[in-house]
Amino acid sequence: MMKKVLLIAVLFLVIGVASAHAVPVTLNVDELYDWGRLYSYAGGVYTPTNVNPAPWGTNPAGGYTITENTFGNADGAEDTWGIGSVASIKTLPANDPIFLRSASQELTFMFYGFNDDALSNPNFVGDTTILSKLGHIAVYLDTTPDFDGTVGTGGRTGLAAYTGATEGLLVLDLAPVDLTGLGHTLSSNFNFLTSSGAGSMYLSTTGLGAWDNLYDTNTQLFGSDFSFTFTVRDNVTPTVGDWVVRGDAGGEGNVIPEPASMILMGIGLAGAARRLRRKN
User: Fold this and answer.
1) Which of 16, 25, 132, 158 could form a disulfide with 186 if both were Cys (CB 3.0 to 4.6 A apart)?
2) Secondary structure (3-state) at 198
3) How many domains does the chain divide into?
4) Collapsed DSSP state (helix, strand, coil) of residue 166
């Protein structure tokens, strides 16, 4: 019953305020956990050194190689996936809250299916540019918060499912856009010696999420709806689960309704659902 109530409330807001002007927003992600392909480098060739713990498109360690500065190496095997938790969504520049994580609601996401296509030669400090293809991100609003990154990669139960990260109402369904004209959807700079780096992508709504119409503004680069950047560091001190890296991220976009309506959506949905549940 509660999920149905949430969906009805969101659909009402989409219909009621779709004509309002767009408002810039910023997203803050303070928990990001990632399994990513690691490589050794020698003689201009990258050789994978770890195995994807998920059964979807797994390549064995050392089972293939990628020559530096070459394209067309994407083979359909997943090289990056993970989960994250959104701390807040706020308007710019007023900093009004649209969503704030609390004891009664959380906004979590899963990213999956990114496939490495090209790796540059390392620079003088060992940094490598990685261009990947494909990929997807799904964001969920859950009124029974249970996100727990310490579970590690074992929490994945399907291609697009992870316990505690893909539960509740699907609010944003996002597909990364082509950055290079060659199908590359993710550009990252990574150092395989220190297991640290950063990256960026641009995302478009697919229409499948309950909030997709609100953020479908095509106001970011490449006609996308969100810009998304992240930094990652080696998963040590403390170690969290068995992820390769963990980090933080942020995003920017525009939302169609005015801030007051969005505050009602982000903060008020949980309370409205609880009140209606008590009446029933």
Assistant:
1) 132
2) strand
3) 1
4) coil
Instruction: Give the range among 57-71, 108-122, 189-203 with minimum mean pLDDT.
Output: 57-71
pLDDT band at 57 (very low <50, low <70, confident <90, very high): low
Q: What is the 3-state secondary structure (H, E, C) of 126-141?
A: CEEEEEEEEEEEEEEE
pLDDT above 60 for 258:
no
Query: Is 118 in contact with 71 (CB distance < 8 Å)?
Result: yes
* Buried b or exposed e, range 93-120, using 16+ CB within 10 angstroms: eeebebbebeeebbbbbbbbbbbbbbbe
CB neighbours of 192 closer than 8 A, spacing ≥ 6? Answer: 38, 39, 40, 41, 122, 126, 128
| Inter-CA distances, 275 with 144, 264, 278, Å | 15, 15, 5
Cis peptide upstream of residue 60 (ω within 30 degrees of 0): no
Residue 58 has pLDDT above 80, yes or no: no
Rounded to an integer, the average pLDDT of 62-72 is 92
